[in-house]
UniProtKB/TrEMBL annotation:
PANTHER family referenced in this protein's UniProt entry, alphabetically: GLYCINE OXIDASE, SARCOSINE DEHYDROGENASE-RELATED
Domain of life of the organism encoding this protein: Eukaryota
Protein name, UniProt field: FAD dependent oxidoreductase domain-containing protein
Domain FAD dependent oxidoreductase: 7-354
Gene Ontology CC annotations of this record: cytoplasm
GO MF annotations in UniProt: oxidoreductase activity
Family matches, as Pfam families: DAO
Amino acid sequence: MAALLNVAVVGGGIMGAAIANAASRVGAKVRVLDVEARPGCGGSTRSTWAWLNAQKKLPEHYRDLNLAGLQRWKADWPHLINPCGSLVFGDDDSRSLTDAVYPAQRLGSGEVLQREPGIAPGMAARGAHLWVQEAYVDPQEACAAMLAAAEARGAEVLLGPGQRVERLQVEAVADEQQEGRHGELGAGRRRVTGVVTADGSYHAADVVVLAAGAACGPLAAGAGVEVPLLHKPAVIALTQPLPGPPLTRHLLSSEEVFAFQRPDGSYILGDTRAHEDGSQAWGESLLARATALVPGLAERGARVEAVQVAHRPWPKDGHPIIGPAAALGCLGLYVATMHSGMTLAPHVAELVAQELRHWQREMGRAEGAAPELLAAQALLRPYRLERSYDSGVAAYGWKQ
């Protein structure tokens, strides 16, 4: 970074917090803007299941990216994660058992009940796949820790309704710049120079990083950039904290429900359906399915305390969208949005930080021969904004 790079990060969820932390570490001047008063309490981060995993993620480069994310959590933030492992019921795919890089173990009924005595015997009889390497993280605690680390290095974190980013400030690239020495700034190019927030403030920036989940689409559209995201909302339900010792310890997944008992004793429940039914009745349906898996929920008097609709970022092909918008004619804009953000955030943030470290403002992207930059760019190449989204390669090997 020849001069101090002024970076505006839009979004204080897990991706924005991780990028702010990593960018501040490489010397950028960082400002984070988020509408929520508390870190990680909005959008997709608020309603994530926070399951850290690389399970059935395709192809290999995407599995490996997730595995690197999981390893980064364990290396850099071990105090934040619960290395509980996951138990998946109803999985008949034997390929997971022979994956040398990310293997599962097949458990019979007795082994399931030995690990989780609270599982219904009928469900345990089906057996399960165990991934011991997987983990859970509290999303709000993680966001707060990452933003605090960024602030300790001088980052500015602006939170609250007035900090909602209403639009990107965009300017046309002047003719003389189009004739510049790089010869790459053709007609119709524009530059994002900052953002305008709900309180009327203008925040200038050399680079605006959109890390705002599903909101990346409409914000980028204001700069003439398409971020191809699908509308795939999900619903989670939360129970009240249950008294007594933990009923279960693993992340539990079946064809009917996901369930995990958090450290405070409450359960977070969900499934893979894409819909927006945030009613109490739907929450009760999730609880009924979870009770069929863990009968002790009824015995402890579990009740649904909250139902949340999550507007998840879901790229058209399922894979992350990470990179500058220069190839689409827009300078000064960087997009980082993805479905598996909780798992990927700390690793992807380090890769993004290398691009910001070597950012060339006049080109709207990173340039250079530094080994760490070239390594980061090689890993990010499959996920660029300008790629084809019709490869036909599914990102996830489980039912959606």
